[in-house]
Amino acid sequence: MKNNSASVRSVVVLALAAGLSAFALAEEVPASAHTLTGNFGLFSSYRFRGIDQTSGKPALQGGFDYSHASGFYAGNWNSNISSGAGYPEGNLEMDFYGGYKASFGDFGIDVGGLYYYYPGTDLSITNGGKTNSGRVDNGEIYIAGTWKFLSLKYSHAVSDYFAVPDSKGTGYLDLSANYDLGEGWGINGHVGHLNFRNVSNGSYTDWKLGVTKELSGWVIGAAYVDTNAKGDCGKGEFYCFSNSLSSQNVQDGSKTKDAGRGIAVVSVSKTF
């Protein structure tokens, strides 16, 4: 019995020593400076700056984000779109972005650039006597400031805005709020204004009010989105979009919609 007790004590001591060594080793391993996350979601409609991008149909969206402890980041985001929203022969949006973020207590700053790419598009559009032909794309730089749950962001087009001739320098100002109510509930709001350079009836204001609920890592959302964009199809205004658009700019005239009309959008999304 004496020998057995000594053996048991030895095993316990060795196990404790091994555990302490493993804990000490874990403590010595620094946290990674690199973070990679992914995201995807299903939305009843895709609204970009308040304007309908999918002719009121659902959108499947997703992408990934890389960030470094220094504050630098890069990412990609994708969504299906309707050709009638100004993307002839196109059905996919791919966004590529990168920038730098820093925080100072409750304040933060974010600067970067974003490239919108629409593979397969073939556009020919004239504005102000100038014509652009070929693929639809857009390049922007942006700067944003945050304070607690509020953010203010300005985006500036460094190319013709989504291939519309003579629209370089178009700007978008966005004020947003995301407030955590606790127990998985949150509310969000937004108001933005697009100054569409050299485009008649192109400038407008949009707004959104929404609520979210987290359930087992999934986020369920509902929001009301609206604008004062000029989209009256009876008057042939700028934001009257068709369901489809060919490379010759031929619209599906039988199915047109005010792309800036108010709409409720529901969604389910997840970040992993």
What count of helical segments does DSSP give? 1
CATH superfamily of the largest domain: monomeric porin ompg
CATH topology of the largest domain: Porin
Tell me roughly what share of residues is in helical segments: under 10%
Report on the architecture of this protein.
- With 272 residues, this protein is mainly beta.
- The chain folds into 2 domains: 1-30; 34-271, Beta Barrel (Porin).
- The chain is 10% helix and 54% strand.
- It is built from 1 helix and 18 strands.
- The protein has one helix spanning 2-28, and strands at 34-43, 47-48, 51-52, 59-68, 72-80, 92-104, 107-117, 123-127, 130-134, 137-147, 150-157, 171-182, 185-195, 204-215, 218-227, 240-242, 256-258, 263-271.
- The strands form 4 sheets. It has a 12-stranded antiparallel beta barrel.
- The radius of gyration is 25 Å and the shape is globular.
- The model is unreliable at 5-17 (pLDDT under 50).
Structure described in brief:
By secondary structure, the chain is mostly beta strands. The protein is built from 1 helix and 18 strands. The protein has a 12-stranded antiparallel beta barrel with strand order 1-4-5-6-7-10-11-12-13-14-15-18.
Salient structural properties:
single chain; globular; Porin; 54% strand; mainly beta; two-stranded antiparallel ribbon; 272 residues; 18 strands; twelve-stranded antiparallel barrel
